[in-house]
Amino acid sequence: MERYDYFRQFHDISPADYGQLTDHLQQRSFKKGEMIVVPGQTQRDLYFVKSGVQMAYADAGDKTYVIDFSYTPFLCAIAESFSFQVPSKYFLTCLTDSELEYLSYEQLQILLDQSQSIERLFRRLIEGMLADMVDLHINLRAMTIEERYRSFCRRNPQLLQLVPHKYIASYLGIDPTNFSKLFNQVKL
């Protein structure tokens, strides 16, 4: 899906406003395993994924807790760090080689002040992200592990080939051994 079409799912942004937003994007490449943000670092740029897969996560001792995955056409950020310009509590890393476009926090604020349409787009994007987080929170408590696995596979089938299964298991709150069983036994 093209980024413009993705954005229009949230707000019917005009081609002119979309151009105003994308004219300010700069490009950055990251290698697989490269960190975008680490705990204690403030995320100064908002990334728009062109290619690759990224993962936000927290480490607690010897355990990794996956918060989210990003890939095209989504945004890539530690939302709290970027939105409030505070040090991150989490890691943001590239699981594959990645091409990202970005806007600085300051540049985004200028665009939000200049265009009600861009401001509305970002408000709706944030509302969508919040709704997805609430759904995930409820699903982790209300669904069986097989239901969580099936739901993830319906929404993100491409990630099964791109992301190490231990990270998907963590994201879904499933023990890696049980995830492996589901992967090998559940027919989608």
Automatic annotation (TrEMBL):
Transmembrane segments: none annotated. InterPro entries: cNMP-bd_dom, cNMP-bd_dom_sf, RmlC-like_jellyroll. Residues 9-52 form the Cyclic nucleotide-binding domain. PROSITE patterns: CNMP_BINDING_3. It comes from the Bacteria. This is Crp/Fnr family transcriptional regulator. It comes from Chitinophaga qingshengii.
